[in-house]
């Protein structure tokens, strides 16, 4: 892996969100709900919700990364988690910022399996080693990504952003 990084600006993120929304719309998929994976998928979930005219947005918290290129052995869903029965029969669009290993997307997709009528995944970035191929991705890269919301340290002294 090179030391070069992908740098996503807020302006470029806006472009990516609109282009992804258009790709979802062009595919004919009409989600009933956007399920954003917190924290990385929140901004994309909101943007796609507006662009696709989907007001029903929910959040699932998954912890996997604990630092730069440091992660738990497996991703875990943190409470509160949406009840799968509440999503029963719905078409769900799962959003995240990146499919790096793909294990977070896989966890959430598997959680919904058998409960929803259809679940599709969308990410801003997809990496080649991802164990799940997102249905929609804006850019493929092998580089580390600097996202505009996490490239600067927190404004709270003594706290780490991971």
TrEMBL record:
GO terms for molecular function: glycosyltransferase activity. Keywords: Glycosyltransferase, Transferase. The keyword Phosphoprotein does not apply. It comes from the Bacteria. Pfam families: Pribosyltran. Residues 11-149 form the Phosphoribosyltransferase domain. The keyword RNA-binding does not apply. This is Phosphoribosyltransferase family protein. It comes from Nocardioides renjunii.
């Amino acid at each position: 892996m090179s030391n070069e990084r992908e740098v996503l600006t807020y302006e470029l993120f806006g472009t990516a969100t609109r282009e992804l929304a258009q790709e979802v719309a062009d595919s004919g998929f009409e989600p009933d709900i956007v399920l954003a994976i917190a924290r990385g998928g929140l901004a994309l979930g909101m943007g796609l919700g507006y662009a696709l005219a989907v007001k029903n947005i929910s959040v699932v918290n998954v912890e996997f990364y604990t630092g730069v290129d440091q992660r738990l052995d497996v991703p875990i869903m943190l409470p509160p988690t949406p009840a799968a029965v509440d999503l029963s029969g719905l078409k769900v669009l799962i959003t995240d910022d990146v499919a790096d290993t793909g294990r977070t997307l896989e966890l959430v997709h598997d959680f919904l399996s058998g409960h929803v009528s259809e679940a599709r995944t969308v990410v801003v970035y997809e990496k080649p080693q991802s164990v799940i191929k997102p249905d929609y991705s804006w850019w493929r890269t092998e580089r580390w990504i600097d996202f505009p919301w996490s490239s600067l340290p927190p404004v709270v002294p003594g706290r780490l952003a991971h």
